[in-house]
Amino acid sequence: MSAQAQMRAMLDQLMGTSRDGDTTRQRIKFSDDRVCKSHLLNCCPHDVLSGTRMDLGECLKVHDLALRADYEIASKEQDFFFELDAMDHLQSFIADCDRRTEVAKKRLAETQEEISAEVAAKAERVHELNEEIGKLLAKVEQLGAEGNVEESQKVMDEVEKARAKKREAEEVYRNSMPASSFQQQKLRVCEVCSAYLGLHDNDRRLADHFGGKLHLGFIEIREKLEELKRVVAEKQEKRNQERLKRREEREREEREKLRRSRSHSKNPKRSRSREHRRHRSRSMSRERKRRTRSKSREKRHRHRSRSSSRSRSRSHQRSRHSSRDRSRERSKRRSSKERLRDQDLASCDRDRSSRDRSPRDRDRKDKKRSYESANGRSEDRRSSEEREAGEI
């Protein structure tokens, strides 16, 4: 892989599919069934055992570091429960590995010479010490690569002690069987990775095996499987508790409803009275609203009628005053005209009286004038009164 491809893979792993701001670049999402869920959890055997003697080749499902980054970001807000899928995948793989281990053990039992149980136990002790020495040597190499010299020196002291125990165990095993049989290579199947181990392997061979990528890869897969089992058990327990809690809440609500229905059925009068009180309160509130509305309408109508009546009375009073003033002026004008007429008539009578010498004629004329004047005044008064009545 070139440096550019490694850089691209690193950016995908850190920033996800949308690292360039283009959300449509990725054709599928991490939740798709075609995506390997074990790869999202960084425990797919195809990735762990790549480049070893048991390389499984390319996985049938999609492996993409960008999708893993998307899953890690989304899993902080939502639980997708992909651990169950990964656990099933690893369980099937480890089951196949254990099955191969049992087959290899049967094959060794058929090909190698049968030995007694006591000798087999002594040989098993030698194998155990070889395994311990190989693990310690692998740890020493790892600490030396990390630069932790003091810890690596302490582990080397443990290696020397294990080697001394191994020499003693080999001496016991050699003394328990003939020399011809002891010189034969006794093989043993590794319980972790199902590889063959020899009883007389040197420390370098043991260190290469127990510190190799194959053995460590199987250890990683088995440890990851145990971790997934624990996580899945915790999540299932949590989910079961939530379901149980919801079920208890539903049952409590059903009991409460049943109790209320029973109480209503036992006391129908009480329920009816409650309904009656509710209906009564509602009707009373509606009646109050209607009354307030009618009162407000009556007030507005009264105010309008009062204002209209006031305006009408004012206009009527103004018309009455104006008619009175007009009648008064007319009456004044008529009275002045009558006075002038009377004065003219009086002057004419005086002239005539002076002309007439006889007293008898004078009396007749006076009576006639007085009678005419009286009739004229009465007629004028009647006409003025009729006019005033018509105007009113």
UniProtKB/TrEMBL annotation:
Pfam families attached to this UniProt entry: LUC7
Classification via InterPro entries: Luc7-rel
UniProt feature, compositional bias: Basic residues: 258-321
Subcellular location: Nucleus speckle; Nucleus, Nucleoplasm
Coiled-coil residues: 94-172
Any GO BP: mRNA splice site recognition
Key word Flavoprotein present: no
Cellular component terms per the entry's GO annotation: nuclear speck; U1 snRNP
Sample GO molecular function, one term: mRNA binding
Keyword line: Coiled coil, mRNA processing, mRNA splicing, Nucleus
Keyword Nucleus attached: yes
Ranges annotated as biased composition (Basic and acidic residues): 235-257, 337-364, 377-392
Region (Disordered): 235-392
Subunit and interaction comment: Interacts with SCNM1.
PANTHER family linked: RNA-BINDING PROTEIN LUC7-RELATED
Function: Binds to RNA via its Arg/Ser-rich domain.
Family listed: Belongs to the Luc7 family.
Protein name (Swiss-Prot/TrEMBL): RNA-binding protein Luc7-like
Record gene name: LUC7L2
